[in-house]
Amino acid sequence: MTSDDRATSPTQAPLPTSRPGGPAPAPPAGGFVVHPARGAFNAAFFAVMGPYIERKLRDHKRRVFADLPRTVVELGPGVGANLRHLAPGTTLVAVEPNVPMHPRLRAAAARHGVDLDLRERVAEDTGLPDGSADCVISSLVLCSVADPARVLAEVRRVLRPGGTFRFVEHVVARPGTTTRWLQHVLRRPWAWTFEGCSCERDLAATVRAAGFVHVDVEPYRIHSPFVPFNTQIAGVARA
Fold this sequence. Notes:
The protein has one domain (34-238): 3-Layer(aba) Sandwich (Rossmann fold). 29% of the residues lie in helices and 23% in strands. It is built from six helices and nine strands. It has helices at 38-64, 102-112, 148-158, 178-185, 187-193, 203-208; strands at residues 18-19, 22-23, 71-75, 91-95, 115-119, 133-139, 159-170, 214-221, 231-238. The strands form two sheets. It has a seven-stranded mixed β-sheet. The model is unreliable at 1-13 and 17-29 (pLDDT under 50).
C-alpha cells in the first residue's frame, strides 16, 4: 500500500445523507427482497463462520484495508466482518439492505468502538452525494449484487478524485479446472442458498473495465471446503 492510498484528513466529517441540490430519496432497500428464512439463515451462518472465513482472508484484507481513513463507506458489511480492520472511533457508513444482518452489525460495531451510520440501501444506489467519500470497501459483496458494473459506477460517483475502492471478492476459476466445473454445477443451489450469490463472475475484469484511474488486483486461492468460493481477488482501485 502506498502513501497515496492513505487518507489525507484524519478528521473527515461524517458523510451527509443528501445528494447535491436536495435530500436523497429514502426508498426501501431499492428492490432487494429479504427472504424470510434465508435472510435469517445467512445472518446466522456468517456470524458463526465469520472467524473461519476471516482466518482465510486475513492477510489479504490487512493489505488492502491498511491505513483506512476515519470515515469509510462499506458496501454490504453484513454482520461486521471487517470492523476489526477499522480503528476505534472510525465512522462506518454501512450500506446494507439485508435487515436480518442489522442487529449483529450494530452489536459488532459497539464492541469495536466504531460509530455506525447504517443505511438500508442497495449498493447500486447508496444515496450518498457525488464525490463525498475518501474510501469505499467491500468484501464478498460484488458476487451477490444484481449489477456489479452499476455498483462500480456508483462507487466512482461517490468517491472523491484520488479516493480508493478497496475490495476482497471471490471470482470465477480458470476454464478447464475442477473448481470451475464445480462452480458451474453448483451455481443454482449456491445462488439460492446465499441470496443471489454468483460463483461465476469475472470480477477482476469488471473492476478493470469500470473506468478507475488505476487498478491493482492480486488473484489468489484459499483452501476451504467451500470450493466454489476458493478462487479470489484482492485489490485497490483509484478514482
